[in-house]
Every structure is written in structure tokens, then in C-alpha cells.
Write a structure and sequence with these properties.
It is built from 5 helices and 5 strands; from the N terminus they run αβββαββααα. By secondary structure, the chain is of the alpha+beta class.
């Protein structure tokens, strides 16, 4: 790549590993910028090299944690959801979709639709906790009954 950069006079951004004298590996990101000078035959090359080994290690640890979390969620019948206040849209894990019996073609659920799935006797307290959580940016722990989409059963 470096030779191609020099021959073609094109900039590049690449990641690669280098082996150190102690046989350990480092992952680096290299940004190479080729600049033309006023003289058409003259070019200069600026290279910036950054050690990103720690980022790669954290990405691997994060990936492992995600796999473990998914396994735990799948085996414990726990669902995970996120709510975007600005767009009023939810995103659900497969487990939440199963628990709420959300139709496959209806994944753009609003807060109003979620509230409608809460048992009528629990709605006021849930709305109150949601509101306080959104306003104060606080976590909450809440137990309530739901009426799954398209079903008359209570969970």
C-alpha cells in the first residue's frame, strides 16, 4: 500500500499489525496524505501512525460481553428494549417481541401503543414512573401486567 501510495500519489488510511522485537503484536492505524507542491514533479508525504491495540482489545471484550448478554437474555426469558424520546420509537429484542406478541410487521411501536398494552389498572403508575424517569434521567425497576398484542391473556 505504501509503495502504491508513492507510485500513484494517492492518500490512504489503513490498519495493520506490526511485530515488535519481543514478538508481541501491535495494531496500528496509519493515515498517509500526499500533497502536491507547486512544482508538478514534487510531492510530500505526511504519515500519522497511531497505536490502536487498546481499542481492538476493548472491541474484542465488548463483543464477548454482547455474546454473553445475548445468551443470558435468551435463557432467562428477559427482554430488552430501548425508547428514543425524540422519535417516540422503541427498539425491542426478540424476547420482548415474543413476550408482547408484537406482529413481525409492526416493529415501529410508539409509547402510546406500549401504554395500551399495559393492564388498565397498572397504566397510571407506569406512566408516572416513565414520566419521572424521562424527566430526571433516572433508572427504575417496575413490575406491571401486560396484555400482549392481539391476545386477551394477561401476562
Amino acid at each position: 500500500v505504501i509503495q502504491t501510495t508513492l507510485n500513484d500519489k494517492n492518500s490512504h488510511n489503513i490498519q495493520y499489525r506490526i511485530e515488535l522485537e519481543d514478538k508481541s503484536l501491535k495494531t496500528v492505524n496509519e493515515i498517509c496524505e500526499v500533497k502536491k507542491h507547486t512544482n508538478p514533479l514534487r510531492y510530500s508525504v505526511t504519515r500519522i501512525i497511531q497505536d490502536i491495540s487498546h481499542i481492538e482489545e476493548k472491541e474484542q471484550a465488548l463483543s464477548k460481553s454482547k455474546i454473553q448478554l445475548n445468551q443470558a437474555v435468551q435463557t432467562s426469558f428477559i427482554g430488552i428494549w430501548e425508547y428514543n424520546i425524540e422519535t417516540d420509537k422503541y427498539s425491542f429484542s426478540k424476547e420482548v417481541i415474543d413476550i408482547l406478541n408484537i406482529p413481525e410487521n409492526n416493529k415501529n411501536i410508539t409509547l402510546k401503543q406500549v401504554i395500551e398494552q399495559i393492564h388498565p389498572e397498572d397504566r397510571y403508575s407506569v406512566k408516572k414512573v416513565y414520566s419521572k424517569s424521562f424527566k430526571n434521567k433516572q433508572n427504575y425497576n417496575l413490575t406491571y401486567r401486560i396484555i400482549p398484542f392481539n391476545k386477551n391473556e394477561i401476562k
